[in-house]
Each structure stands twice: as structure tokens, then as C-alpha cells.
Design brief:
Blueprint: H1 3-39, H2 42-63, H3 66-72, H4 78-110, H5 115-122, H6 124-130, H7 133-141, H8 145-168, H9 173-195, H10 205-239, H11 242-275, H12 281-318, H13 326-336, H14 339-351, H15 355-379, H16 383-405, H17 413-440, H18 445-467, H19 469-478
Length: about 475
């Protein structure tokens, strides 16, 4: 088998297991969320939404960008892994202490006294995750997502079962806390058992400096990006009742089942694969262009269909109580439409070692976001208005990412935007057809839902035969032995 076919086979296998891991993990969480949504109240989800940003920021500190540096390194050894492990562990303990002491201040900010104990318990996951970072890096470098898939499924089922039992017993918000702590604990334990890597008693300051010089920019850019993605929870939690934040939080989680799963899977698999071509710009360009166009071709209709069928699916799954979250979910799908494409563009910059540009883009984006939020809130101080600001930010971000990635790849910004716009047009027609089917054909909900999906996808494929032939052909070839 040629090197190209071997690489393609390994990439596809990695994508398959990565998608399986993330989709199964998110799928299990979705099933659990459906059950919990029927057992708990929106305000319970709202309380977790208030501290989402602190959990996310803490996770970024633990990873510290050094995990990406290890993935990019050609031949890291035990000393490399051990050095990063001990740094991550110390950072996680420091972060937990800071969050423990800050809990009363955060609770006072949101005027929710319950947050003190909730935050102090749930932030234990920060220390737990420190034990899993290197284990994941080793598996990612091997493009071994099969092991991670099995671990995620076991952890998801176990934590979900515990959360549902606690909700049935009347534990309220603590069932959601237990779900997160149990899941992270199970994953860490199973990763250690499966991988069987243990750190040596070494810490090499020279190696640490080398990795930190690459990773610290990713750390800061990750922090800024995390704030950018999660600031909405803080604003909504501060400005609106906790119930409204609960609707927004659940809508975001539902959106992330698809948007985040696919985006993370693509980023995790393509980064180590594209890193192999960092010194061969032609091969890097060819593989990158194919990934961009095929990813958009598959992903755009998926997220579009989810947005279109939401008025039927969300009340059906979660109950009528959650119907107010439908418009939030639909608009959040637009926000997430470009996530995988943004991730691929950033991967090119990381592969080329331009973490300084990644950091600079993070600063630019958060400045633009705050300006947008300030303007939008003055014009329309509703949750819908806040999400519209997020949509505008998402499209501004793709322009920035495309522009800078095009400087290091043989794929002009204008060409990439043209190819993406064609797929967006096809997806928009799909959205219109699905909604027309729902509004004009009077049959039971399940049958109508199936008809919507079939007609929508059929129309998308027919349109693609006219304007997206390259994407259709190459997506088929990508998953065939002849490609």
C-alpha cells in the first residue's frame, strides 16, 4: 500500500473512531439530558450554566497548550511526557485552590448562594483531568481513537446512570454535578488502566522551556477563545432569570452534540495528520483543501437539518416545558455552522508553528465580540440579541481565519469563501424545503419529521449535482478504497 493510501486509511480510521467517540459520548449525554430535562427544572441547568465558563477556563489552564506541543513533536519520550505531566498537575492544584477561595465572590456576583458549594465540588474535575491529559496525548499521537471511544462510552453510561438515579431521588442540581465529576473520574481511571503509562520521577527544565515556548501562546489564545465562547452564559446569568439561562444552557448542549462533536473530532485527527506535512507545503495544501471542502459538504446539511426540525424534535424529546429553547437552539446552530472550518484553518497555523498568529487572532476576536455585544445589547437587550452578536462574530472569525491561513497554504481566501458559499446556498435551500414540508403537510409528527429529512437531503444532493460536484465526488472518494 502506498504512503498516501496508508495515510488516508489511518486518517479515515482515526476520523471514524474520533467521530464515534464524540458522537457516542455526546449521544449518551443527550439521552441522559433528555431524561434529566424531564426530571429537573430549567433553573437547575441554569445554575450549572452560570459556572460553565469557570470550568472551561480551568480546563484550558490544565492543558496549558503543552499537549499540542507534544502532539506536534516528532519523537517525545517518557522524560518529555513526565515533564509536562508534573507541570499540569501543579497548575491544576493551584487553579482548584483559586476557584475554591473565589467561590463566594462568584456566588455573590450571580446572587446565587448555592453556587459556593456547587463550584467547590465540581471544580475537583480540574485536578482529575490533569491525570488524563498525557494519556490522551499518547493515544492521539497513535491516532488511536478506538480506545478513547470505548472509555467515553463506559464513562458516559456510568455517569449518566448515577445522575438519573440521583435526580429520581430528588437531588436536583447535584445530579448534574455528580454526572460531570463521575464522568471525568471514570475517563481518567480508564485511560490510565488502558494506556499503562506512568510518569518517571523527572522534570527537565530545558524540555519544559521548549514546550512552553510553543504552548504558552496556545494557552493564552485558548483562554481568550474560551472566554469568547462562554461569556454569553455570564451575561445571560447576570441579566436574566436563572430559568432563561437554563433554556439557553440546554439549547447550547443540544447544539454541541453535533457542532462540537464534529469540530473536535476533525481538529483532533487532522492536527497530528497535517503535522506530518509541515515541511511539504504542496501535500499539506492538497490534503487541507480536500478536508475543508468535504467537511463543509457533510457538516453543513447536518447542522441545517437539526435547526430546521427543532420545533418538532425539542418538545418531543424534552417536553413542552422546554419549547422556549427552540429559537435559541436554531440561532445557536448558525453560530456553530462554521466551527469545523475555523478549527481546520487554525490547525494550519499551528502546524506551521505560527501560534503567535493564533494568539493574535484570539485577541482581535474577543475585542470585536465585546464591541458587538455592547452595540447589540443597546439595540436589542434580549437573549436573541446576544445570540445574533455571536452569529456575527462567527462569520467575522472565519474571514480572519481564512485570511491568515491562506498566507501559509496554496488556497486563496477568495477561493475558500467561494467554495463554502456554494455549500451554504445548498444548505439554505435544504432548510427552506424542510420548513415548507413541516408547515404544509398535515400528518403526525414522526412521519412529518422523517419526510422533512428525506426531502431535505434529497434536495441537497440534487442541488449538489449542479453546483457542488467536486465536493460530492471527493467526499465519496474519501470514503472509498479508490480515493
Amino acid at each position: 500500500m502506498s504512503n498516501n493510501n496508508q495515510l488516508k486509511s489511518k486518517t479515515l480510521l482515526g476520523l471514524f473512531w474520533s467521530f464515534t467517540e464524540l458522537v457516542s459520548k455526546q449521544g449518551i449525554q443527550l439521552l441522559v439530558q433528555i431524561v434529566l430535562a424531564r426530571l429537573l427544572l430549567p433553573e437547575h441547568f441554569g445554575l450549572i450554566g452560570m459556572i460553565t465558563i469557570f470550568i472551561a477556563i480551568s480546563a484550558i489552564f490544565v492543558q496549558s497548550g503543552l499537549d499540542q506541543a507534544l502532539i506536534r513533536e516528532k519523537n517525545p519520550g517518557t522524560e518529555d511526557y513526565s515533564t509536562v505531566f508534573y507541570f499540569n498537575l501543579v497548575i491544576s492544584i493551584v487553579v482548584y485552590i483559586i476557584m475554591y477561595l473565589s467561590a463566594p465572590i462568584i456566588a455573590d456576583f450571580f446572587k446565587e448562594p448555592k453556587l459556593v458549594e456547587i463550584l467547590r465540588v465540581i471544580m475537583v474535575v480540574v485536578i482529575i483531568n490533569a491525570f488524563a491529559v498525557i494519556q490522551r496525548v499518547i493515544l492521539i499521537r497513535k491516532v488511536d481513537f478506538k480506545t478513547q471511544t470505548k472509555i467515553s462510552i463506559i464513562a458516559g453510561i456510568t455517569s449518566g446512570t448515577i445522575a438519573v438515579i440521583m435526580a429520581l431521588m430528588g437531588a436536583g442540581v447535584w445530579s448534574l454535578v455528580a454526572q460531570q465529576v463521575t464522568m471525568q473520574s471514570m475517563e481518567a481511571i480508564l485511560l490510565i488502566v488502558s494506556n499503562r503509562w506512568v510518569p518517571s520521577f523527572t522534570f527537565n527544565f530545558t524540555l519544559f522551556k521548549q514546550y512552553f515556548n510553543f504552548g504558552y501562546k496556545l494557552l493564552f489564545s485558548g483562554l481568550i477563545s474560551t472566554i469568547q465562547k462562554n461569556i454569553y452564559f455570564v451575561i445571560i446569568g447576570k441579566m436574566y432569570p436563572v430559568t432563561q439561562l437554563g433554556y439557553f444552557t440546554n439549547a447550547t448542549k443540544l447544539r454541541d452534540v453535533s457542532a462540537q462533536s464534529i469540530s473536535q473530532a476533525i481538529q483532533k485527527v487532522t492536527y497530528p495528520v497535517l503535522s506530518r506535512f509541515k515541511d511539504d507545503n504542496k501535500r499539506l495544501s492538497v490534503n487541507y483543501i480536500r478536508l475543508i471542502r468535504c467537511t463543509a459538504f457533510v457538516y453543513f446539511p447536518i447542522i441545517t437539518i437539526l435547526a430546521a426540525v427543532a420545533p418538532i424534535v425539542i418538545p418531543m424529546l424534552l417536553g413542552e416545558l422546554w419549547e422556549p429553547s427552540v429559537p435559541y437552539f436554531q440561532l445557536l446552530c448558525i453560530v456553530g455552522l462554521l466551527y469545523p472550518i475555523q478549527a481546520l484553518n487554525l490547525n494550519v497555523l499551528k502546524v506551521k508553528g505560527r501560534t503567535d498568529i493564533v494568539f493574535m487572532l484570539s485577541i482581535i476576536k474577543i475585542i470585536v465580540l465585546f464591541l458587538l455585544l455592547g452595540l447589540i445589547i443597546k439595540i436589542n437587550d434580549t437573549i436573541i440579541g446576544i445570540i445574533i452578536a455571536a452569529i456575527l462574530m462567527s462569520f467575522i472569525a472565519i474571514l480572519l481565519h481564512c485570511y491568515y491561513a491562506s498566507k501559509y497554504i496554496e488556497y486563496r481566501m477568495s477561493r475558500q469563501l467561494f467554495h463554502l458559499s456554494k455549500i451554504m446556498v445548498s444548505s439554505s435551500i435544504l432548510f427552506i424545503i424542510v420548513n415548507l414540508t413541516r408547515l404544509t403537510i398535515d400528518i403526525n409528527s414522526i412521519t412529518n419529521l422523517i419526510l422533512q429529512v428525506v426531502l431535505g437531503l434529497g434536495a441537497y444532493l440534487l442541488i449538489s449535482l449542479l453546483i457542488n460536484k467536486w465536493e460530492l465526488k471527493n467526499t465519496i472518494n474519501l470514503f472509498s478504497k479508490q480515493g
